[in-house]
Amino acid sequence: MENSCEFAGKYSNDVTLKELRDRLAEFAEARGWDQYHSPRNLLLALVGEVGELSEIFQWKGEVAKGLPNWSCDDKEHLEEQLSDVLIYLIRLADVCDLDLGQAALTKIVKNARKYPVPAHQTT
């Protein structure tokens, strides 16, 4: 029997980066945290969260897609750490007045030019 977690694989609504950015800005403002959310501080917090994310995988060796052998608790912990990284990344982009979504799309186009599909490869 497959191990299914209550939260795994559920996608209720697609959330935009703008919605996340706005909610995070409101959250920080309501708590008076804007004074601490300098680009430097947010970057350091982001690096710390990436470190915590890395710890999850540190001694697991290669991990299969979909994490079939992981417990629900392990998957939930991973989900939380990934969310922390995303939250700090979005907040950092906002504080720097950058459009993260557009920047990502632009980067994909640049990468497509830099790494073209080989001529012998078909899709």
UniProtKB/TrEMBL annotation:
User: What is its cofactor?
Assistant: Mg(2+)
Per its record, the protein catalyses:
dCTP + H2O = dCMP + diphosphate + H(+)
Concerning InterPro entries, the annotation shows: DCTPP (IPR025984)
| Magnesium keyword on record | yes
Q: Which SUPFAM superfamilies match?
A: all-alpha NTP pyrophosphatases
Record keywords: Cytoplasm, Hydrolase, Magnesium, Metal-binding
Q: What is its main location?
A: cytoplasm
Q: Which Gene3D superfamilies match?
A: MazG-like
Q: Which domain of life is it from?
A: Eukaryota
One of the entry's Gene Ontology molecular-function terms is:
dCTP diphosphatase activity
Instruction: Enumerate the Pfam families for this protein.
Output: MazG-like
**This protein's GO CC annotations:** cytosol
User: What EC identifiers does the entry list?
Assistant: 3.6.1.12
GO:BP terms for this protein?
Answer: dCTP catabolic process; DNA protection
| Location of the protein in the cell | Cytoplasm, Cytosol
> What PANTHER family does this protein's entry cite?
DCTP PYROPHOSPHATASE 1, PTHR14552
- Explain the purpose of this protein: Hydrolyzes deoxynucleoside triphosphates (dNTPs) to the corresponding nucleoside monophosphates. Has a strong preference for dCTP and its analogs including 5-iodo-dCTP and 5-methyl-dCTP for which it may even have a higher efficiency. May protect DNA or RNA against the incorporation of these genotoxic nucleotide analogs through their catabolism.
Q: Quaternary structure per UniProt?
A: Homotetramer.
Its protein name is dCTP pyrophosphatase 1
